[in-house]
């Protein structure tokens, strides 16, 4: 029964943040409208875990090498927003950090999808020097990858911990979780500090766990809910609170910001990691998606939907709209430099 399921603590944290937020609110009416349009669009596109595998850069094999690939990508999946100001005509968007592969320039998360997946290799500073890693993460444009030193530190830390405690492979963690998504999230955040995405908010410790949850979810999607990707409690995973999904939730009217926060974001001012406004943006995004999911399931009880698929859809849609400037015409994504997202 659902009451006996383990919890990551993320949803409880999100509810607390939503109920106590000062600068971010959720429009239940907008969530209801969004639920209807999102469900119809996902049905029309036959949106499912197969959609994840259909992307050119995601692995097509269903074996241990795919798990290793997903781990390193989600280990380093943070802070790809560009310092390039879209309003500054002297700094072309074409200058942002880009990796050219297979005749196309890849930016943001997709620029990270490279074949370097062995923890024991990252842990060997002689074979895998900082200089080599800087070369691996070189850009094909003027802008370098953000937080490169922090990315290298994450690789070193994870390489050491997996080598010393998990037989040199994240597969060991997956096996130890024994088919529980929540247990795997807990294993990740308890053993790998760079995944421990927590903060203090109004006297309480709150849990966001963006990268830990997306790591589990990417494995679930890659393996289409089978083999390494089978998790009996996958619906306990929330959306992944980053900077792109809050932007489209605001575009849809689901999230509403105070005048002060709106001005701050529009002026491209940085919000420090751990700032109450940042925590509210992320926590209310999680709870907003829960509201959207609830509306969909109330209207369509048999719908095969969860917060993961909703996040995948919203993120993909935000990227599509970004390419035609629809989202960017409304409000920019908030700017927070952090290893957590």
Rg is 19 Å
Sheet with the most strands: spatial strand order? 1-6
Shape, principal axes of CA atoms = globular
N-to-C CA distance: 32 Å
Mean pLDDT reading: 89
* Number of strand elements: 6
User: What series of H and E elements makes up the topology?
Assistant: HEHHHEEHHHHHEEHHEHHH
Structural class: mainly alpha
Q: Show unreliable segments.
A: 87-91
What's the main sheet like? 2 strands, antiparallel
- DSSP helix count? 14
Kindly estimate the percentage of residues that lie in beta strands according to DSSP: 5-15%
* Overall helicity: 40-55%
Question: What does this molecule look like?
Answer:
The protein has 341 residues and is mainly alpha-helical. It contains 14 helices and six strands. It has a two-stranded antiparallel sheet. β4 and β5 form a beta hairpin. α4 packs antiparallel against α10 and α8 crosses α9 (181-191). The longest helix has 24 residues, at 276-299. The chain is globular.
């Amino acid at each position: 029964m659902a009451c006996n399921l383990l919890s990551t603590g993320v949803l409880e944290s999100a509810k607390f943040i939503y109920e106590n937020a000062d600068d971010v609110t959720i429009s239940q009416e907008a969530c209801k409208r969004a639920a209807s349009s999102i469900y119809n669009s996902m049905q029309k596109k036959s949106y499912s875990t197969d959609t994840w595998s259909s992307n050119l850069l995601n692995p097509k094999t269903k074996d241990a090498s795919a798990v290793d690939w997903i781990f390193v990508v989600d280990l380093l999946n943070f802070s790809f927003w560009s310092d390039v100001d879209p309003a500054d005509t002297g700094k072309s968007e074409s200058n942002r950090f880009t990796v050219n592969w297979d005749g196309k320039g890849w930016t943001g998360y997709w620029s990270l999808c490279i074949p370097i997946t062995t923890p024991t290799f990252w842990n060997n500073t002689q074979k895998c020097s900082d200089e080599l890693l800087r070369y691996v993460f070189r850009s094909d444009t003027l802008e370098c990858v953000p937080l490169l030193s922090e990315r290298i530190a994450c690789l070193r830390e994870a390489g050491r911990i997996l080598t010393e405690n998990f037989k040199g492979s994240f597969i060991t963690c997956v096996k130890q979780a024994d088919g529980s998504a929540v247990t795997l999230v807990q294993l990740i955040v308890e053993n790998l500090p760079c995944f421990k995405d927590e903060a203090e908010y109004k006297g309480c410790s709150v849990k966001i766990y963006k990268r830990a949850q997306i790591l589990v979810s990417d494995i679930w999607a890659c393996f289409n809910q089978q083999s390494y990707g089978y998790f009996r409690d996958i619906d306990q995973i929330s959306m992944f609170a980053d900077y792109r999904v809050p932007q489209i939730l605001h575009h849809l009217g689901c999230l509403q910001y105070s005048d002060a926060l709106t001005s701050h974001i529009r002026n491209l001012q940085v919000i420090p990691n751990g700032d109450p406004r940042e925590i509210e943006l992320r926590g209310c995004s999680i709870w907003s998606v829960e509201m959207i999911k609830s509306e969909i399931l109330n209207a369509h009880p048999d719908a095969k939907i969860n917060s993961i698929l909703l996040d995948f859809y919203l993120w993909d849609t935000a990227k599509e709209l970004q390419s035609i400037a629809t989202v960017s015409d409304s409000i920019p994504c908030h700017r927070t430099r952090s290893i957590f997202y």
